[in-house]
Amino acid sequence: MATPRVQQMNHQFLVTQSKILTPSPSPGITTLGFLPAGPQFSNIFSSPPGISQESPKILNNTTNGTNGFLPGGYTCLPHSQPWQAALLVQGRLLCGGILVHPKWVLTAAHCLKEGYRVYLGKHALGRVEAGEQVREVARSIPHPQYQISPTHLNHDHDIMLLELKSPVQLTSRACVLPLSHTDCLPPGTCCRVSGWGTTTSPQVNYPQTLQCANIQLRSDEECRQVYPGKITPNMLCAGSKEGGKDSCEGDSGGPLVCNGTLYGVISWGDFPCGQPNRPGVYTRVSRYVSWIQETIRQQKTQQQKWTKGPQ
């Protein structure tokens, strides 16, 4: 069952033929999304908004659904992934994201939702941390070719830019991750995924601290064989053949980092997560570098015009 790896917000979802869940008209996620809701942390948005969180994102699953952490999944060294963003709506984790510019966060288009707060410099979601920064979103810009339809579920172009209302102060705990311009790294290349998503599947277990896992790129041919008719040139697969290591529910929009650059954005995959020979699917960032750069440039130009006013 292919599912976007977004955190469900306790709203009603309808199952489709492809077994991905789509939102009902209730005020749920305006996206294709299924994920069990994570634990509710106390809301500490008073004074400097801390982080009321609930679901973490990263992966760990045994094929028999037991609840232990999988070999290879581990708690990230605190603040070792300083580009990692947490996207919250009403104090609950929805998705991950990546800081790609002081004023821009990249995430998955299926994470589209109003009312985000973006947290950077976070490791533990359940408490306020020194050096964390919180920003509201000025505008969400999904890729123009991304389509959401209740009758045709298509994960292609699953990428979105979030413009922040004010720039992030770049520090050792919040910094930009370079985009990969490389279209095709060799299969077997070791990369890292990170997020606050469930560490077990199909049962869910949401950690409070950022999780990491080292996984390998799979060949495009293998990816197409595993998911016939669903893989486009804008996607790539990564995971371990033996299973047990994967991104999972709540990790959507987070980074796949290869050779120190952003190579993929967590998009979708099979459920339960982490099955042998069922890799996760990621948006191939190199296909969108021009769109990302041009979108940021256009918005900057537009803002300069507004600032200057009529001549």
Automatic annotation (TrEMBL):
A Pfam family that the UniProt record links to this protein: Trypsin
Keyword Transmembrane helix: no
Domain of life: Eukaryota
Keywords: Disulfide bond, Hydrolase, Protease, Serine protease, Zymogen
InterPro entries in UniProt: Peptidase_S1_PA, Peptidase_S1_PA_chymotrypsin, Peptidase_S1A, Trypsin_dom, TRYPSIN_HIS, TRYPSIN_SER
GO molecular function, one term: serine-type endopeptidase activity
Family under the similarity heading: Belongs to the peptidase S1 family. Snake venom subfamily.
Enzyme nomenclature, EC number: 3.4.21.35
Gene source species: Equus asinus
Keyword Cell division: no
Reactions it catalyzes: Preferential cleavage of Arg-|-Xaa bonds in small molecule substrates. Highly selective action to release kallidin (lysyl-bradykinin) from kininogen involves hydrolysis of Met-|-Xaa or Leu-|-Xaa
SMART domains the UniProt entry points to: Tryp_SPc (SM00020)
Protein name per UniProt: tissue kallikrein
GO biological process: protein processing
PROSITE patterns: TRYPSIN_DOM (PS50240), TRYPSIN_HIS (PS00134), TRYPSIN_SER (PS00135)
GO CC annotation terms, alphabetical: extracellular space; secretory granule
Limits of the Peptidase S1 domain: 70-297
